[in-house]
Amino acid sequence: MKVEKLEDMNLSRLTRKSYGNDAELEQRVSDILSRIRHEGDEALYQLTETFDKVNLRESGLKVSPAETEQAYTQVDEAFLSTVRQARANILSYHEKQKRSSWFDAKEDGSVLGQLILPLKRVGIYVPGGTAAYPSSVLMNALPAAVAGVEEIVMVSPPRSDGTLLPEVLVAAAEAGVTEIYKVGGAQAIAALAYGTKEIASVDKITGPGNIYVTLAKKQVFGTVDIDMLAGPSEILVLADDTARPEELAADLLSQAEHDRLASAILVSPDQALLEKTIQEVERQLADLPRVEIARSAWENYGAAILVQDLEEGLGLANQIAPEHFELVVAEPFRWLGRVRNAGAVFLGRFSPEPVGDYFAGPNHVLPTGGTARFYSPLNVDTFMKKVSVINYSEEALTRDAQAIAHFARREGLEAHARAVEARKK
């Protein structure tokens, strides 16, 4: 890789990613959703056997209390302590987000307000199989618990032996998940959306997954709500000459190792820093366990971009709207007010991205693919809904009836006008 000047960059290479034939993938997902909708659990069993090579009739679809209890015996105390510390941090952060219903009493006796209510039943998707993502369990389930959701249903693909990783089960228990099912992919999303005999439908589905999961969430939206359409991981680091190449390289690779389509972008007005960091990335790649994935992401969607100054670098960051944005500069708070588009901002060299992934408290389910321009991280509001409250007094209706009726008639809705005037009489 070479340093590139901003004016010479083809930014579409960094922001437009293809999964192949999108129309073909959409149709495959649609077929899976249709099967679950019409065949229910039988299709769940068959598709899980096809895709995951697991017989759910033997291993069971739902995780039993005994399986969760056994999971606690399979994890060490250090892990359990870490999960509980992370849980406390995530709860503390998200509890500050919770809002209460409100009412405004007017002098004429009317009362206007808003009920802020938790959803009753939500589904969270946790990637699974050979990898463990207990952090995703905490980040999805704990905001729902803070919101007051009664039923938190988790789905996750089973391992080849028909079980879920003990770390995931322990995290689910610690986070207050009420039901767990050993099923993944588009079929799991369909079950949550439409319901089957074994899995009751939910009101909303959250959590990242592969392209099949993402497209399934897209197609069931409207039947249920969803959090967002999550894509490959992204990091953009804006650095000045106070940054250290070995640290920057490690931060870039922390996202590149996620996925071959992950983006890892370094932006700086310091060409020497960019060149040294490129060299450092190559050095660190040599002994990285997920070297093939990380190298593919770095070579195809990585970049080292030379800008004139930090001002221009911030403009580029706001244009790309990265999932993770690191400001590794001498005075990060000086520049924070100019950040417009980012899922999460990490300030200074002691705030590397994994701090947010696991432990600090803010949510790691973040908007990707430029959607940070209009989406927010997963939060307590994700699991709540708002209901408007209107209690008009007789005095208020008498005062406003003529105006309301006039408005209704201008829209050609005579019955609307008469509904108001009937009370005026």
From TrEMBL:
> Which sites bind NAD(+)?
Y125, Q187, N210
PROSITE patterns reported for this sequence:
HISOL_DEHYDROGENASE
Q: Does the keyword Transcription apply?
A: no
Describe the reaction catalysed, as an equation: L-histidinol + 2 NAD(+) + H2O = L-histidine + 2 NADH + 3 H(+)
Query: What protein is this chain from?
Result: Histidinol dehydrogenase
Q: Which cofactor does it need?
A: Zn(2+)
Gene Ontology MF terms in the entry: histidinol dehydrogenase activity; NAD binding; zinc ion binding
Which family does the record assign?
A: Belongs to the histidinol dehydrogenase family.
What residues sit in the active site? E323 (proton acceptor), H324 (proton acceptor)
Q: Which GO terms describe its cellular component?
A: cytosol
Q: In which pathway does it act?
A: Amino-acid biosynthesis; L-histidine biosynthesis; L-histidine from 5-phospho-alpha-D-ribose 1-diphosphate: step 9/9
What class does this enzyme belong to in the EC scheme?
oxidoreductase
Q: Which residues form the signal peptide?
A: none
| PANTHER family in alphabetical order | HISTIDINE BIOSYNTHESIS TRIFUNCTIONAL PROTEIN (PTHR21256:SF2), HISTIDINOL DEHYDROGENASE HDH (PTHR21256)
Q: Which residues bind substrate?
A: S233, Q255, H258, H324, D357, E411, H416
The cofactor remark states: Binds 1 zinc ion per subunit.
Q: Which InterPro entries match?
A: Ald_DH/histidinol_DH, Histidinol_DH_CS, Histidinol_DH_monofunct, Hstdl_DH
Q: Show the HAMAP family listed in the entry.
A: HisD (MF_01024)
User: What does the entry list as the binding residues for Zn(2+)?
Assistant: Q255, H258, D357, H416
One GO biological process term is: L-histidine biosynthetic process
Q: Does the keyword Metal-binding apply?
A: yes
Q: For this protein, what is the EC number?
A: 1.1.1.23
Q: What NCBIfam families does this protein's entry cite?
A: hisD
Please name the Pfam families in this protein's record. Answer: Histidinol_dh
Key words, A-Z:
Amino-acid biosynthesis, Histidine biosynthesis, Metal-binding, NAD, Oxidoreductase, Zinc
* Annotated function: Catalyzes the sequential NAD-dependent oxidations of L-histidinol to L-histidinaldehyde and then to L-histidine.
